[in-house]
Design goal:
By secondary structure, this protein is mostly helical. It folds into two domains: 5-34 and 260-296; 71-253, Up-down Bundle (f41 fragment of flagellin, N-terminal domain), CATH 1.20.1330. It contains eight helices and eight strands, in the order αααββββββαββαααα. Strands 1-2 form a two-stranded antiparallel sheet. It starts with a helix and ends with a helix.
């Protein structure tokens, strides 16, 4: 029996291709992944790259959002403590101004007011991860220093923003001068003045009343600045949650894209195995009837 060498060669190629297919299908079944290279499925592989890029971007945002949330929460806590200190200062000043206290008691209030001033300055100089949160853009510079009853702001007026995945920008800080030394509502101006007002034990009621009014204004003003921080916390949290949910959905899509369809692959593997066996039988039969033509090729 004469056998066309090209026919034999084609059979051998088909056998090799079928064996490779079997190996690929078996690998997919064992790994549970249907796409391991671009050649397996170029379209799916391309989609997978796009999904990976989006997932990585979302992961970066959620990580940054976590850090930003920490900073905002520290700022909110600091301002909350400032409100508490200023509320105490208002109460002390009100008592000192009513004319019922002795000179020593008024001096004691001056001392307590000085302690509040020190505590508020400490809070205004709060840092997070080594960065001063009320220094504007000068986050490595201590924002406030006091010399001779005058508190100076050493930061700047820069406001930092974080861009959300939807393009929205969220305010991340309130510069210290805006919070603590605003015109007509200066926290440090009022506290320094009140410390001096009561230091001699004799109250200049007109001046002390004016300074107390400024202190009340500064208390209300700090509370409003705190609202800005609270709103930013809520916005960042909502955006981070939405991004995290989207990331979960994208991961599911990616998993489904790459996940092996066990039933389909098993069927294909069974077909490939049958084809391989059939090709082997044909080749063995040809070898036997063609005087081992394969061995001579």
């Amino acid at each position: 029996m004469r056998v066309d060498p090209n026919y034999v060669s084609n059979l051998a190629d088909s056998l090799n291709n079928t064996e490779t297919l079997e190996q690929n299908l078996s690998s997919q079944l064992s790994s549970g992944v249907s796409v391991t290279s671009i050649g397996d499925d170029p379209v799916a592989a391309s989609q997978n790259v796009s999904l990976l890029n989006q997932i990585q971007q979302d992961d970066t945002f959620t990580s940054n959002a976590t850090a930003v949330q920490g900073q905002l929460q520290v700022a909110d806590s600091a301002l909350g403590s400032v409100v508490t200190e200023l509320t105490s200062a208002v109460s002390l000043a009100t008592s000192a101004n009513n004319g019922s206290l002795s000179s020593d008691e008024v001096k004691s209030i001056s001392t307590q007011m000085s302690g509040i001033l020190t505590e508020v300055q400490t809070l205004a100089n709060t840092s997070y991860q080594g960065q001063y949160i009320f220094a504007g853009g000068q986050s490595s510079t201590i924002p406030f220093t006091t010399t001779s009853n005058v508190t100076t702001y050493n930061g700047d007026e820069n406001v930092n923003y974080m861009e959300m995945p939807n393009g929205e920008k969220i305010q991340l800080n309130v510069p210290g001068d805006q919070v603590f030394t605003a015109s007509g509502a200066s926290v440090f101006g009022a506290l320094n003045s009140l410390v001096e007002d009561y230091s001699t034990g004799t109250v200049n009621v007109t001046q002390a009343t004016t300074d107390l009014a400024t202190l009340n204004s500064s208390l209300n003003y700090v509370s409003r600045q705190r609202v800005t921080i609270d709103n930013s916390i809520n916005q960042v949290t909502a955006s981070a949650d939405a991004t995290s949910n989207l990331q979960t959905q994208l991961t599911t899509v990616q998993t489904n894209l790459l996940q092996a369809d066990v039933a389909t692959i098993s069927t294909k593997l069974s077909t490939a195995e049958s084809q391989f066996t059939a090709l082997e039988s044909v080749i063995v039969s040809l070898e036997s009837s063609s005087n081992s033509l394969f061995n001579r090729m």
